[in-house]
Amino acid sequence: MVIYQNGTTLYPNVTEFSIKGLSDIPELRFPVFLTFLFIYFIIIFGNTTIFAAICLNSHLHTPMYMFLMQLSIADIVYTSCILPKLLNMIITKNNTISFWGCICQMYFFLAMACTEVLLLSAMAYDRYVAICHPLHYIVLMSMRQSAGLAATAWSIGFIDTSGHAVLISKLSFCASNLIDHFFCDVIPLLKISCSDTTKVEIINYIEGTLILSAAFMLTLVSYIFIISTIIKIKSSEGRCKAFSTCSSHLTCVVIFFGTIICLYMRPTTSYIPKQDKFIALLYAILVPILNPVIYSLKNQEIISALMKFKNKLV
After folding, report:
1. Nearest to 63 by CA among 245, 287, 308
2. I need a labelling partner for 207 at 20 to 30 A (CA). Which of 28, 178, 239, 264 fits?
3. Helix/strand/coil (H, E, C) string of the chain?
4. What number of other Cβ atoms are within 10 A of residue 299's Cβ?
5. Hey, which residues does 179 pair with through a beta bridge?
6. What are the pLDDT digits (tens) for 213-263?
7. CA gyration radius for the chain?
């Protein structure tokens, strides 16, 4: 049914969207497909290997590695929300996605991104307790407490983003249903809506600010205490060893928090498609690749576990 509102034709019952994708140049279709297929393989293989190595080695069943395992799950899920569909669009040239398929893609992606932010924050607190209060680590970060933190991160991720999905699913959309992005994301969807999106933007900004601010402050305060404790260590070898246990995590935090804040903590009017696609690629693809690489290369225990895992397979 067509509805006219202020001279604008609206289609409240849109059945599908068209996703613009990354490139309109036909010659780049197969190179781009092969590149993203390889990237997806690396993400799945790397994170699955980390997950399996931690599961199969009982001495890695500690809070830090359990959080890393949860991080691997989140990385696998949220890249699987995007890349298979993107690969299908590139190879088949069919850029359409159903209305509810788009809403579901957006929901699960946001849920995993929110969960990852909170898991990274929990990992920062874990490193703070391990470095600043090593004698009380077993009490302050027992497996029960770390499991509670992980469960809280996943619960908030799924519950918080459900509101966004419900509100956006009730919006009306204009005659142009072209999403200028490579997946269904919040801001590109709001840009093509003919409804008043002020309420959705305010809720998005308030909830995002509260969660990101809380996670960021916990991470920041944790690292302030960590750095101040490391500085007080007399031997340079001790300082290097202490810092090496959190340098990998800090790298992921800077990239993930930085890109998330740049993309979502601003109004839709500042949306620049080409720039935002590039930033989205950083946290949607770069971080899931970096997580298993930097954690495994900088962690002797992970390397040993991977070698044992390899030997079991051989």
Report:
1. 245
2. 178
3. CCEEECCEEEECCCCEEEECCCCCCHHHHHHHHHHHHHHHHHHHHHHHHHHHHHHHCHHHCCHHHHHHHHHHHHHHHHHHCCHHHHHHHHHHCCCEEEHHHHHHHHHHHHHHHHHHHHHHHHHHHHHHHHHHCHHHHHHHCCHHHHHHHHHHHHHHHHHHHHHHHHHHHCCCEECCCEECCCCCCHHHHHHCECCCCHHHHHHHHHHHHHHHHHHHHHHHHHHHHHHHHHHHCCCHHHHHHHHHHHHHHHHHHHHHHHHHHHHHCCCHHHCCHHHHHHHHHHHHHHHHHHHHHHHHHCCHHHHHHHHHHHHHHC
4. 19
5. 19
6. 888 888 889 888 888 888 887 777 767 766 766 777 777 777 777 777 776
7. 21
Q: What φ, ψ does residue 131 adopt, rounded to 5°?
A: -90, -40
Domain 11-313 bears CATH identifier 1.10.760.10? no
All residues at 6 or more sequence positions from 193 whose CB lies less than 8 Å from its CB, including other chains: 168, 171, 172, 173, 174
What's the chain's length in residues?
314
Asked if 183 and 86 touch (Cβ cutoff 8 Å), the reply is yes
Residues 21-34 have a mean pLDDT of: 79
CA dihedral 115, 138, 290, 179 (to 10 degrees): 0
Cα separation, 29 vs 9, in Å, equals: 34
Q: How confident is the model at residue 4 (pLDDT cuts 50, 70, 90)?
A: very low
Paired tokens of 245 = 């246990």
